[in-house]
Amino acid sequence: MIAAIASGKGGTGKTTVSASLASVWTQALGRPVLAVDLDVEEPNLHLFLHPVIARNTVASLEIPVVDATVCTRCGACRTLCQFGAITILGDAPVVFAEMCHGCGGCLAVCPVGAITPGARELGCIEEGAAGSIGFLSGRLRVGEAMSPPLIRAVTRRMEELLAGPAATALPDVLLDAPPGVSCPAAAAVAKADCIVLVAEPTPFGVNDFILAVTAFAPLGKPMGVVVNRAGAGNDELYDFCRQAKLPILAEIPNDRRIAETYARGGLLAEVNEDCRRLCHTLAQAVDRLAREARHA
Amino acid sequence: MPEIVVISGKGGAGKTSLTAAFTALAPKKILCDLDVDAPDLHILLDPHNTVRNDFVSGHLAHIEPDLCSGCGQCRDWCRFEAISPHANGGWHIDERRCEGCKTCVVLCPQQAIAFSPRTCGYSAVSDTRFGRLVHAQLDPGAENSGRLVSLLKKKARELAKKDGLDLILCDGAPGIACPVISSLSGATLAVLVTEPTPSGIHDLTRVAGLCDHFRLPTAVIINKADLNAEAAARIKTFCTDGGHTLVGSLPYHPDVTLAMVQKLTLPEYGGPLAASVASLWDAITTLAGQAPRPL
């Protein structure tokens, strides 16, 4: 089963919830777990799980390389490219690598085969383990504008890992998704069985939460809500959840001790006995939510 | 003209609450919310007299079922995993994944794929009690946030010029990719809001690296500074070593949320944080007036 932990607004506790769920998952449910950080612009999950990284690979996007001695300057590639990434300047074919989305269209339409695949580095994919917790993460190169291709590359690697030898028990997957509701977030939750939305009961929190629900509802995946900093704001979030029939899976109280533990890099489950129990209950609720999807 | 962009890398660090506080303090400016994916500034500024325009950007491919022969070449070409089998035996393009590259449109042997302009959200100009606000909303799951950010900045510059204003104050986008890069383009100062947590420090180093990449001067604010004094000290060292100006800090304080619930900016709400944000704003305007960062 794959559960995505997402949020409309950043800083609502998405990574806190992902790391805490991963830390108690096997104890609570008796199954192995793989924690995947798809927040590739600002990956933070490793800061709380402290994995040992065993494999680090560079992820690239295929971009065109033009052989000017073969190119006839016909302009077919320029006409096709919707991103202004390939053109003819003066008498020379020019590729603007940073603008390229890697669609491969120019390679396909070039009538003389003057274009071959090259690569632009998107970032890296890190793999390892934190004790018994499997770990996989993407990290976007600073200066790189496009995160969705890296998110797709990490997702493909996740699927390879899950297609491994059937003899070993397949892990459950917890995906830490990027915040927001635009293309990176949509790319991240695509393969999940269920979506856990982390939200704050504040005016900003509710506004962004409603955007996230609007963005993810058409995917038809079961959704549940974790209210973080419960008691900090007002009742709008609860009213909306009631009307939209979204179950509240857990409430993390608005408590300075929790913020301080987080600031030290500690896990929610480590704050006190109440928090430990909350994490266990949440793990079971997420598991039930994902099963709802498979029975649907 | 000074163009100040407030960013944070990490969400929830207090970027929008601080931007809103500065809007209450800055005279003669145009306001701009560049967080087009999940904008929040309007919640505190209560925009009215809003004039909206559709944001049409890029295209969307669509398979005409009657013309599709079911050959599946489009699926093989699509690098965005946007094409999947349709119930009718042909193929279907997922709007949320299509990046509008046109490759399938051109290569389809039946010419069965239409290619139409795509409405991705809207841009707007509104009045607020602190001046005019240029803002937007990207449709959920839509593309082209970077282009929308560029459009808003262009609009803000036009209005500033027309109205004789001398400052553009922007709430930036989160993260470090496409919309943030567009947010920083043409800016004169980036205000980086961080917090003394492992994520806060980690994300600060990445957004600061992005500002270095664009040789953009920076002003750093540590929010919730008293949550972890040791981590706050590390941020201070990071700023000194990296040539980033630490303009001040704010404590972890319930007033930020209490003001938000009342839909007020911190200077309007009053209390101990009002004086703190005023001195932060003084330090920022001093920096913004200085010469650009040397190459």
TrEMBL record, chain A:
The keyword Metal-binding applies. Residues 62-88, 91-120 form the 4Fe-4S ferredoxin-type domain. The keyword Metal-binding applies. It holds the Pfam family Fer4. PANTHER family: 4FE-4S CLUSTER CONTAINING PARA FAMILY ATPASE PROTEIN. This is (4Fe-4S)-binding protein. One of its GO terms (molecular function) is metal ion binding. It comes from Solidesulfovibrio aerotolerans. InterPro entries: 4Fe4S_Fe-S-bd, 4Fe4S_Fe_S_CS, CobQ/CobB/MinD/ParA_Nub-bd_dom, P-loop_NTPase. Keywords: Iron, Iron-sulfur, Metal-binding. It comes from the Bacteria.
UniProtKB/TrEMBL annotation, chain B:
It comes from the Bacteria. CDD domains: SIMIBI_bact_arch. Residues 59-88, 89-118 form the 4Fe-4S ferredoxin-type domain. Pfam families: Fer4_21 (PF14697). One of its GO terms (molecular function) is metal ion binding. Keywords: Iron, Iron-sulfur, Metal-binding. InterPro entries: 4Fe4S_Fe-S-bd, 4Fe4S_Fe_S_CS, P-loop_NTPase. The keyword Transcription does not apply. SUPFAM superfamilies: 4Fe-4S ferredoxins (SSF54862), P-loop containing nucleoside triphosphate hydrolases (SSF52540). This is (4Fe-4S)-binding protein. It comes from Solidesulfovibrio aerotolerans.
